[in-house]
Amino acid sequence: MYYKEKLEQAIEELKNIEDTTEHKVPYGRGNKQKWYTTVDTRLNVFRKYFGPVPIKTDIINQTSTSVVCKSSIVLDGVVVAEGIKEVFYGKGFEIEKCQTGSVGRALAILGLSGDELASGDEMLEVIERDKIKDSINIKDEKEFVKNVCTKYKTAQHHNQLNEFRDIAREIISQNKLGWKLSEQGINLLNDTFETAQKTLSEQKTI
């Protein structure tokens, strides 16, 4: 059986996997809820049809802030899919997460993604980001600025600090606050961010 026939069967099996937390990660509510298959589930289905086909994974770039991995799937001597993933340092197991992510991307490009390109593993990161967003009270400017500043002050590393700033900017850009951020509020946010940046840089040099 040629690999394309096996692939069609693997894709069909993956599509028919039930929406349960054993194999997938739910995201959204009500009619908008979608289920994202985990990399492990995708890989298990791939192995079922193709056996121990090696998936080559390399670190193609590594800096002080992030690591980038590339995974290649070779069938019948031909590279049929490649996936690239970048993970920023700060939450632990970055290289492992990067390797898993790039494998998941490669499998998705091959067609083993269920109904969604993103994997359940990646959606867990989105869910964590949403939790941070929900923890920032936006009912009025005073509470919003206070909560964002608290996030800045408690950031454990530069990547997390930048993530908090990006989330705050995202909330503001959605224009659903019901109030306008004042110049005083903007200045306080910027000053607190710069102070947090300086503090983290000083801790790094100790």
Describe the structure.
The longest helix has 23 residues, at about 185-205. β1 (about 25) and β2 form a beta hairpin. The chain has helices at about 5-15, 40-50, 95-110, 120-135, 140-155, 160-175, 185-205; strands spanning about 25, 35, 55-60, 65-75, 80-90. The strands form two sheets. The chain has a three-stranded antiparallel beta sheet with strand order 3-4-5. The protein contains seven helices and five strands. The mean pLDDT is about 85. The radius of gyration is 21 Å and the shape is elongated. The N and C termini lie far apart (about 60 Å). α1 runs antiparallel to α2. About 55% of the residues lie in helices and about 20% in strands. It is of the alpha+beta class and about 210 residues long.
For the secondary structure, the number of strands is: 5
Number of helices in the DSSP assignment: 7
Largest sheet: 3 strands, antiparallel
Taken as a percent bin, the fraction of beta residues is: 15-25%
**What structural class results from the helix and strand content?**
alpha+beta
Q: Helix and strand succession?
A: HEEHEEEHHHHH
Uncertain runs: none
Strand order of the largest sheet: 3-4-5
Query: Which descriptor suits the 3D outline?
Result: elongated
What proportion of the residues is helical, as a percent range? 40-55%
What is the radius of gyration? 21 Å
Mean pLDDT: 83
CA distance, first residue to last residue: 61 Å
